[in-house]
Structure formats: C-alpha cells, structure tokens
C-alpha cells in the first residue's frame, strides 16, 4: 500500500491496485539514472577536487592516512533512555 495526502492534510492509505499500472521502483530508478547521465562529473575518482585532496593531503588512495581519516568503525551504543 502507498500513502497519499488527502484534502484535509491527513495521510490516507491507497490500495496498491490503484497504482498497479505504474511500476514506481523502475520509474524512480530510470529518473535517477537519467539525472546521473547528465552530470558533468559522474565518478568520484574523476572529480578534480577529490584528486586534489589526495594529491595534497591524503596521499595514495587506500593509503594509511586516507584510511585513518575517512573510514569509520562500528561502535555499539545503548539506546537513549526514555524519560
């Protein structure tokens, strides 16, 4: 089921049979790929600013400094207490 806004600004549930004529996931994917195709820089490793950062600061991609500063690690944390 999908949700749409009704005239009274409440969320209304719309049965999937109403929107069955359109595959929303494929339409969204198509729109994303079309927008990406029009971008001047499509790949991060071709971005001049990213190249400059590696040349001037991080050094080699995948190097120690880049790994130390750009990669994160999972740390389990407790949930916020409910007051």
Describe this structure as you would to a colleague:
The chain has 83 residues and is of the alpha+beta class. The chain has 2 domains: 1-39, no CATH class; 44-83, Iron hydrogenase, small subunit (G Protein Gi Gamma 2), CATH 4.10.260.20. The protein has 3 helices and 2 strands. The chain has helices spanning 24-37, 48-58, 64-70, and strands at 2-5, 11-14. The radius of gyration is 22 Å and the shape is flat.
Query: What would the CATH topology of the largest domain be?
Result: G Protein Gi Gamma 2
Distance between the termini: 34 Å
Mean pLDDT: 79
Structural class: alpha+beta
What's the shape? flat
List the domain count as a whole number. Answer: 2
Q: State the order of secondary-structure elements, H for helix, E for strand.
A: EEHHH
Query: Order of strands across the biggest sheet?
Result: 1-2
> If helices are DSSP runs of H or I spanning 4 or more residues, what is the number of helices?
3
What fraction strand? 5-15%
- CATH class wording of the largest domain: Few Secondary Structures
Write the CATH architecture name of the largest domain.
Irregular
Seen as an oligomer or otherwise, the chain set is single chain
Can you say what the CATH homologous superfamily of the largest domain is?
A: Iron hydrogenase, small subunit
